[in-house]
């Protein structure tokens, strides 16, 4: 029997008025407030909104993967 | 520092014996029972089951996006 | 009104040092510890890590679908 | 030995001058005239033709899956 | 020399507070106000916005194809 | 009730030692020997085999769509 | 004139209660009962159903390609 | 400040009764009648119609990219 | 009758010798010179050219969506 | 132990001022100058450049597969 | 300056007469004969050939990633 | 005979602890150490690893295209 860890991937959209980079970092920081064992991120979509001729929000949709601890209730992730 | 809100996207499948439209609306209504700040939906897949030569269930898989409040525990979404 | 059940799909990555099959079964077993009504799985990505010239972990990313009970809080899935 | 049923998927395009829904239902009904064990449908493409400024045909391309009976000649599906 | 007609495809998003169907029909009707020779449509994305727990706008992104007349200035399409 | 025709799409791979074009035309001609009402084709994949440093076969995988007549047995297509 | 053989691709779903491998082999064996000249297979989708916390059916959707003989009626494939 | 040129991509479908190649060339020639600075093309879809057992039209959908001049009105492209 | 606004999506490629971010912002600013009601952008492709071992141009292909005013001629967008 | 041959796939872009066909053949011929055991090709992208209103280069991106001989150093492919 | 390692991804197809798993392991083992620092694999395509009604070769196309050492000549990978 | 240059595309992953931009530039710079005629890059995937609640590595997978010189041995690229 060689089953390893199980990881869960939640889909978040980070947003920033400044840049793509900050939108990514912001979502990771927000997730880290309540999720342990964050392990990787995958960018899935980059879009944003425009106001008065300028991008006012950069929005990056990402999968964030984290290891589910042994006893942890997957329903809560 | 201009990080904006963080949004979470959960994947639901709505089902209806009547129509695609009702399957979409049903899933949104079900999610709204327990999720605040529902903001948008994205249709990802349309399928269904057939019984006795007729579609008996229309099933629409969707991503539903909602804003995560400041203190909210992302693990619970 | 003919709205049917609503299903939720969570994204898990199973891992095994032995095989793809075991990685799939391991993730399903882990999810079943805390999620009732597990109904189907969809393989989304197959990858893995290599150490010393051999695959040391097979990793299968899957969507796992389950029926959300009437009163259940979707936020917890 | 635990091989289960084998299913075949045929690709049909239903069409209706009224709606997407009717195009789906029409193709399923037509298939059911000659195919037993119809089990599921998957929508693959939604398009249509326009005449005089209005959609005159809604066309939905779908995969229709059905169980192949033991002795049945797959060539005929 | 057997070159046939050239067609142009513009990308529109129709929206309706009622249904997917109406969102499709609305965009076609709007395009028909200013584009001759509309020939076909292709659905590319179905999404929408949610307000107060209900879909308030259904949004269907479509390609609309039309024949470019001989002398017509493609830049204007 | 405004259901229109139902069309079936079969997937063929045409092959030619000369060119892509001939591979496409060859598959259509072969299908036309036994299928009435052929209506359209969609190219899905272009590949081929190489022998002695040259492409010896060009292979084009295509969907071929045709109208299913009223009484026709879809199982035979 | 250098047109080569024409091949047809039928879409089957094999299923097994044991493994992915067996689901693949089962569908090929079932097709071979009635189709000559089977030449290749392409895996298109891997999914399955879950019962009582375990995968009870592994389902592999595949394209199976075979050469259509000269006189053969493509409608029957 | 190092912003470079902005390019616009219009989507055209070229058609020919002879060949794929001619369908591509025909659409480029048609666009060149009214668009300056045409720079590149990307093939997006290859399909066609069949009449009397032969391809009567080869249709190639392409993106055509061109540089937007400084003062040019993007609305006109 | 609850048809909402119709939006048009034009495809632009922004370019910058400095960064991805500037390529995005540059294309939005260029579009805003002649298009009112710009509402959102979707990144579709990120590529660029290399000269003398360095990226000399970062190129981001994007869809830019804007609301079509009531009387506006869609042909001009 | 039933491991078969290992194949490597290199990605090449062939180009021709004449046609798609010649771009494909040119890349295969170029690869054959230095790669033994070339076995198959897969077309991945068709694009090209435009000059003075005409396609001046047709560019076809392809995967070329070849068998890696027993002792051969994969790093060199 | 925080640039990290650069990794190269080569595309290999492993084959086995026994199973998918063995095809994967076989390609990794073959690559490991000549490539140091193999780090991960990604499955990109699963197909195979059929002979006499049975799968005679299982073929798995994979990307294999490895770290490029400081002085190493990328051309050789 | 109008065959043009042949280009090869290698797949690299650049990584940086700072930003996406730097990950892209780092991989290009690394490739330029040993590859002449680098011509373009295509971003294929953006992901990264997370440590202690922050992105510690941004990883960008890219195709890098370069012209193969007349006499050059494609095996070495």
Put simply, the count of helices of chain A is: 1
Physical arrangement of strands within the biggest beta sheet of chain A: 1-3-2
Give the SSE order of chain A as H and E letters: EHEE
Provide the structure class of chain A: alpha+beta
Kindly report the CATH topology of chain A.
Answer: Dodecin subunit-like
Protein name (chains A, B, C, D, E, F, G, H, I, J, K, L): Dodecin
Organism (chains A, B, C, D, E, F, G, H, I, J, K, L): Geodia barretti
InterPro entries (chains A, B, C, D, E, F, G, H, I, J, K, L): Dodecin (IPR009923), Dodecin-like (IPR025543), Dodecin-like_sf (IPR036694), Dodecin_bact (IPR050049)
Keyword list:
homododecamer; 77 residues; alpha+beta; Dodecin subunit-like; three-stranded antiparallel beta sheet; 1 helix; elongated
